[in-house]
Amino acid sequence: MHNENISFWQHSHAAGQDIKRPGEQRTRIVIAITGMMMVVEIVAGILFGSMALLADGLHMASHAAALSINAFAYIYARRHAHDTSFSFGTGKVNALGGFSGAILLAMFALLMTWESFHRLVSPVDIIFNQAILVAVIGLVVNGVSVAILKSGNLSHEHGNHHNHHEDHNLKSAYLHVMADALTSILAIFALLTAKYFGFIWMDPAMGIVGAILVARWSLGLLRTTSGVLLDRQGPERIRHEIRDRIHADKDSQVADLHLWSIGPDIYAAVITVVAHEPSTVDQYKARFQKNLNLAHISIEVHKCTT
Length: 306
What we know:
Alpha-lytic protease prodomain-like; alpha+beta; Alpha-Beta Plaits; 9 helices; about 60% helix; 3-stranded mixed beta sheet
């Protein structure tokens, strides 16, 4: 068989990962903004004695690190999209980046909790006016970052069919800065309460609340990304649709089905079909041309003799 004939059955595993996504540039802009504000809040929190402000700065630091990992994932996945050493392309780089970011979030949550408890036991003087001003500026910066990422609509178009697929990296970045905005609000609330009502304990208490929020976000991200990295079965909706399309001729039955994610909203499937009068593999594959985001399908067909 000539090579030109074999190439007819070969296909790329890039699955759109070689396309530069709008979220990549937006994420870079937000990293720069977040990084600058992070330095300001951490320094101000130390100088002015505010644990809530310091916690917000550390929270922004964790998100700046996670956003940097997201940006790296964009670039790495795009540049290695056609590298044949990746069996199913580089789509899982996004999940690996998210998993690494979640680990960083968990570490920062522990650091924030430790420092907040220390401040509860040994309170320090807070320079309220300056600390409140910095916290308000931080909230404004977070609002700008949210607007930048929101303008991406958290989705992008694929090819000429205008199918909208959610950009998980961009959504991850969006959730990061939304959480930043929330901790900024907590910091402002804590500082105002401490200043006007004398509840100095509110400042480290809000630091602990911020740490809990970071930890919960981290656990959710760990759960999601680890499922992708460990090839957890894909969505039940898609598995149900695959079975329905195979069962369409009544004679064919799915004996075994493996569906797993190989990138954001991109799946691979291995299907074993049993039938008394089976169709050809190409005929079965033709049933999956639309709407299921299946980038790679392997079908094994067996003739039932009983």
